[in-house]
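Exam prep: given the inputs below (a chain plus magnesium ion), describe the expected output before reading on.
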Amino acid sequence: MAKSKSVWLCQRCAFEAPAFENPCRNCNEWNSLVETIKERPSASARVRAASSTSTSGPARPQALKLAGADRAPRLPLGVPELDRVLGGGAVPGSVVLLGGEPGIGKSTLLLQAAAGIAAAGGRVLYASGEESAAQIADRAERLGLMEGPAAEGVELLAESEVGAISEALMLAKPTLLIVDSIQTATLGGLEGPAGSVGQVRGAADWLAGAARATNCAVILVGHVTKEGSIAGPKTLEHLVDAVVMLDGDRHGTLRTLRAAKNRFGSTDELGLLEMGEHGLTGIDDPGRAFIDDREARAPGAVVAPLLEGSRPMLVEVQALVAGAAFGAPRRTGRGLDSARLALLAAVLGRRAGIAISDRDIYANLVGGIVLDEPALDLPLALALASSQSDRPISRETVAVGEVGLLGELRPVAGLGRRLREAARHGFTRAIVPAPRRGVTPEPAPDGLKVIAVATLREAISEALDAR
Ligand code: TYD
Ligand code: MG
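Solution:
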């Protein structure tokens, strides 16, 4: 056994101190250091030694055309929205961390992914320290997986000790290993309770070694609390190859998937899913899902053609400007950045003659989606101006653009794709930033009148005049 050495590990920030200290010198938390045995897990040490085989002689460069052969092969998980976010699927030998609040649907998503692998002829080992095999079977029943290939191709293991999980992995040699969750996982020989920083990191490190040794794709579940849990995905980020977050309002049905880190692909893609009676279904074409379907025009709303990764989508922005004569005015944004809201209120007041800085401001995106794109500036500012002046914006109008501090509008990327999506859904007018000097704009899609303006003031007069 490797010689063990003990360190003191902060349970809040994961700082490693050689001896006990109080408070933690890194994050100033009191009584947060726990003694942890620092011992190189033997399995992963062996894997590491094997993977860093010392080649004698100088390093050899490789022709660009040959380099493609090393590109990571993909293992599609059969849940298209998850595959989209991962960049085509999981990569054998790598580790993905799926994070999200308790109850958001992580186990449901992964059981569906397990069924997807089984349907493609693969085998899955599903290790759960959270639930018994019977509970997982109940979920599979609800998802309608008991009659399909998953019934044979998915093996359940109610186990949370990673040594035992690794042994089962070596024996079963599955295509995919799911560990639900990393907070319940423990590594024998490590001090500290399950869920402590030391255990979580030790277990993840060991499993990453096992993934490489067996060339098995591994997905770890990580719970995050609203405050961002102590031993949550943050402390694991550098140990895994990709971090995917499943988010959404637990009382609503919409779920979004986003990569916070992706060693094998982009982090721009957004996955959209809906939680239903029989599990999660991908929303392939969001269409009008994020637009209120009322007919009547009400002041304070406009639709924005946004671009999330490679996918254009239409999202309605709603705003309400109200009251507040005394005290600090409120700025409340749901689904969007509140700081941005305050900034736009200031720009509207100084550069567009819409004085709302001393009033309460509320804004949200329809459908409970959370987005953070600079292209949301103009629609948000227009919704605020519309609410303040009590003049509606036509239901046939879309608006998109970034707003600068001087009240100028800045062009946004992918305008053509955004406008084509707006035209496809029957919108007839688009208010957009004027292109940079010397840039010829793409022709407008059929049926859509494109109004290019240079300033927020002009945009407001175009939007609110359309009655
Ligand atoms: P779960 O996958 O257990 O969440 P997590 O693993 O992230 O804690 O999902 C929990 C919720 O999802 C639970 O409230 C029930 C709901 N649910 C559905 O609405 N439909 C379904 O088909 C399933 C399986 C669960
Ligand atoms: Mg779960």
